[in-house]
TrEMBL record:
Gene source species: Thalictrum thalictroides (Rue-anemone)
Any one GO MF annotation of this record: glycosyltransferase activity
Family affiliation: Belongs to the glycosyltransferase GT106 family.
Signal sequence coordinates: 1-17
Protein name, as recorded: O-fucosyltransferase family protein
Length: 182
């Protein structure tokens, strides 16, 4: 009999596979029903919750942007890639605007990439919330004022910045250009 099962399994695959599959599935169900008798744990109400903090909580020592100083100019960014890459670029732009003490213009999303998505920033994000929630840190406007645009004798200066540039790069390379071109 054992020889016959071995010969059959040689030509058809593992004979016990269905038996093992269903017994494992049954055991897994029995184990999970025993494990799921307890309600889900809320980490914020657990005994160790005093050790946790929300990542969006501002550290009390984190300074607000200095509002007494005039802006060093307008920062317009060009996003590219898929929505997630564009979102990451927008986050980076907020940080850069703070480092440079620049006024960030609400970004225009990429309409020419592979995705060919015609959505604008206002179609995807809550623009007012974006501006208001960051108001203590960065000045954000919806568009460059017409008066400023009319006063330009040529289009805004374009500069390509290497990915993952440190803050010093922006202060040493971008800020002088921003101050010259404003």
């Amino acid at each position: 009999m054992l020889f016959a099962l071995g010969l059959i399994s040689l030509f058809t695959g593992h004979v016990a596979s269905h038996l093992e599959y269903y017994s494992f599935k049954f055991m897994k169900g029995a184990l999970s029903s025993k494990l799921n008798r307890h309600p889900p744990i809320n980490i914020w109400k657990s005994k160790a919750s005093k050790l946790y903090y929300g990542c969006s909580s501002r550290d009390p020592n984190f300074p607000h942007a200095v509002r007494g100083r005039a802006s060093n100019g307008y920062l317009l960014i060009a996003t590219s890639g898929g929505l997630n890459q564009q979102r990451t670029g927008i986050i980076d732009a907020v940080v850069v605007a703070r480092i440079l003490n620049a006024t960030l213009v609400v970004p225009e999303l990429d309409h020419h990439s592979f995705w060919k998505d015609d959505s604008d920033f206002v179609d995807i994000f809550d623009t007012e919330w974006f501006i208001n929630s960051l108001a203590k840190d960065v000045t954000i406007i919806k568009r460059v004022p017409d008066k400023v645009m009319r006063s330009m004798d040529r289009p805004p200066y374009t500069m390509r910045v290497p990915r993952k540039s440190p803050p010093e790069f922006y202060l040493d390379q971008v800020l002088p250009t921003l101050l010259r071109k404003r």
